[in-house]
Amino acid sequence: MAEQIADAGGLEVRGLTKRFGDLLAVDGLSFAVRPGETVGLLGPNGAGKTTTLLCVAGLVRPSGGEVRWNGGLLGAERGRRVTLIAETPEVYAMLTVWEHLVFVARSCRLLDGWQHRGEELLERLGLSEQRDALGEALSKGMRQKTLIAASVLAGTPALLLDEPMIGLDPRGQRELRGMLEELRREGIALLISTHLLESAEAICDRVVIMKQGRLVAEGQIAELRQRRGSEETLEDAFLEITQ
Q1: pLDDT on residue 125
Q2: Which helix (H) or strand (E) holds 73?
Q3: What is the pLDDT of residue 89?
Q4: Which pLDDT value is given to residue 240?
Q5: What is the DSSP letter of 213?
Q6: What is the DSSP string of 19-69?
Q7: How far separated are the first and last CA of the chain, in Å rounded?
Q8: CA–CA gap between residue 210 and residue 213 (Å, rounded)
Q9: HSE, side-chain direction, 13 A CA sphere, residue 4
Q10: What is the four-CA torsion angle of 152, 36, 141, 124, rounded to 10 degrees?
Q11: CA neighbor of 8 nearest in space, from 241, 205, 221
């Protein structure tokens, strides 16, 4: 398994472990997300998915293991390699939607001309009318869209999303699916945690299934569906694997 990960390139998680006191939330987890690949991180409640994303993004210090990008350990430059869109969207209360994009553009030292890309993202996500609205006035769905626009604008080579469809209206979900497909074609490594198996089946190339902090299955969705027969759905395979 270690050799397979080393050869994969892109985002590599090796032996990731996280303890909270006596609770072992993540237990020796290893997987890779290659550039231009969308990997779904699946598992029942309490499986350790969110903790895994937080560790990969550098927001929680792991108890063991390592996270690499193209073979090198992620350290101080992690923010230029990995972006996380959390399940609970937190925005700056006193910044407008557009000022969030300005903040990201300056932080990432984006070249002149980023404004056109920013305007396009707001239009696609239905945020143009809220361009000058303060963060504190935004609904949860609007905060989620603001973070999606800012994260896509940042252009990091790896993007992590925790339940990205939750809170989005149908238009927002459709546009996000389209954006994710475009990012995949551009070579971005995408890691998506979700309970929505239909979404995972529609947008993911492979899935990693966790249970009680451990990896219990990994592979292409077609492979998992055929564990008991060709007619098995991803939901059937998921329930069987995590039972």
Answers
A1: 92
A2: strand 72-73
A3: 87
A4: 85
A5: T
A6: EETTEEEEEEEEEEE-TT-EEEEE-STTSSHHHHHHHHHTSS--SEEEEEE
A7: 24
A8: 6
A9: 7
A10: 60
A11: 205
Provide the pLDDT for residue 238. 83
- The number of helices, as runs of H, and strands, as runs of E, in the chain is 9, 10
DSSP code, position 134:
B
Say how far apart CA 76 and CA 139 lie, in whole Å. 33
**Consecutive 10-residue averages of pLDDT for the chain (243 residues):** 52 97 96 97 95 96 95 85 91 96 93 93 94 95 93 94 90 90 94 91 93 94 72 79 83
Reading the block at residue 134, the tokens are 């303060």
Distance of CA 16 to the CA centre of its chain: 17
Pull the structure tokens for residue 218. Answer: 């990994």
d(CA 168, CA 136): 18
Cβ neighbours of residue 185 closer than 8 Å, sequence gap 6 or more: 36
**Cα(110)–Cα(154) distance, rounded to whole angstroms?**
8
Domain boundaries, the chain: 2-81+156-242, 89-155
Paired tokens of 100: 């969030």
The per-residue pLDDT for 124 is 93
Tokens, residue 27? 């237990």
User: How many residues comprise the chain?
Assistant: 243
Is the domain covering 2-81+156-242 a CATH 3.40.50.300 domain? yes
